[in-house]
């Protein structure tokens, strides 16, 4: 009799204690095993390139790259990788964005002990997972938009501008951002000027406040 090997999980969250708690939940299941951890979104992407994993569980609010940014990149480089978003934000905009960037589930940290294992198993079966209690609200909002002929709300800025915004808000200089993203400092400055114009903001402080408001960094 052959046994199916456990699902290999990559766990990414910038809080070590939370990672430890989530790891205990997953490793207690015979069909799931955490094989790698990451402290931010960029590390998660780098780890997935070097460690064979089947499922990535990503926090939203992480340094360097958010979970949504990491999910977008992971979906691009490893289309077969299943992705779950684990978050403290009960927010339908984040939920729709998670689906847009390739995630197949959205789990609240407050009920991870109840929902996470089921969400992981659903993801592996390539089935969507929506945390209980939100299905009716989300479906109603989606149907209302469809009935009015409206698309899902588009983001105000591009993926590259979002990367620049997050790094600016974290306090990185244009030179440092250029090194992180492998672009010139001049290109960074051009993106930052575009951000200020698009968002109607005046300076770095205003950009930082905006980044906090949209969940790119934590206050």
From TrEMBL:
Entry annotated with the keyword Cell membrane: no
Alphabetical keyword list: DNA-binding, Phosphoprotein, Transcription, Transcription regulation
Response regulatory domain boundaries: 8-124
Top-level division of the source organism's lineage: Bacteria
Gene3D superfamilies registered for this protein in UniProt: 3.40.50.2300
Chain positions found as 4-aspartylphosphate: 59
UniProt xrefs under CDD domains: LuxR_C_like, REC_NarL-like
Matching Pfam families: GerE, Response_reg
InterPro entries in the record: CheY-like_superfamily, NreC/VraR/RcsB-like_REC, Sig_transdc_resp-reg_C-effctor, Sig_transdc_resp-reg_receiver, Tscrpt_reg_LuxR_C, WalR-like
Keyword Coiled coil among record annotations: no
All copies of domain HTH luxR-type, residue ranges: 150-215
Protein name: Response regulator transcription factor
Organism encoding this protein: Streptomyces yaizuensis
Lineage: Bacteria, Bacillati, Actinomycetota, Actinomycetes, Kitasatosporales
């Amino acid at each position: 009799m052959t046994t199916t090997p456990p699902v290999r999980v990559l766990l990414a969250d910038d809080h070590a204690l939370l990672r430890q708690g989530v790891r205990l939940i997953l490793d207690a299941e015979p069909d799931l095993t955490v094989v790698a951890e990451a402290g931010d979104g960029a590390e998660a992407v780098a780890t997935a390139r070097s460690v064979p994993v089947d499922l990535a569980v990503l926090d939203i609010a992480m340094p360097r790259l958010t979970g949504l940014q990491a999910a977008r990149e992971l979906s691009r480089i490893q289309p077969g990788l299943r992705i779950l978003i684990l978050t403290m934000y009960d927010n339908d905009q984040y939920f729709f964005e998670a689906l847009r960037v390739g995630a197949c589930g959205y789990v609240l940290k407050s009920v991870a002990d109840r929902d996470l294992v089921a969400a992981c198993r659903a993801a592996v079966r390539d089935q969507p997972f929506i945390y209980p209690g939100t299905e009716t609200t989300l479906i109603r909002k989606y149907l209302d938009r469809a009935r009015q002929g409206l698309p899902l709300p588009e983001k105000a800025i591009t993926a590259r501008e979002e990367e620049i915004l997050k790094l600016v808000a974290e306090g990185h200089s244009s030179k440092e951002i250029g090194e992180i993203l492998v672009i010139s400092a001049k290109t960074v400055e051009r993106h930052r000027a575009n951000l200020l114009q698009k968002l109607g903001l005046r300076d770095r402080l205003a950009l930082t406040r905006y980044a906090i408001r949209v969940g790119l960094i934590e206050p």
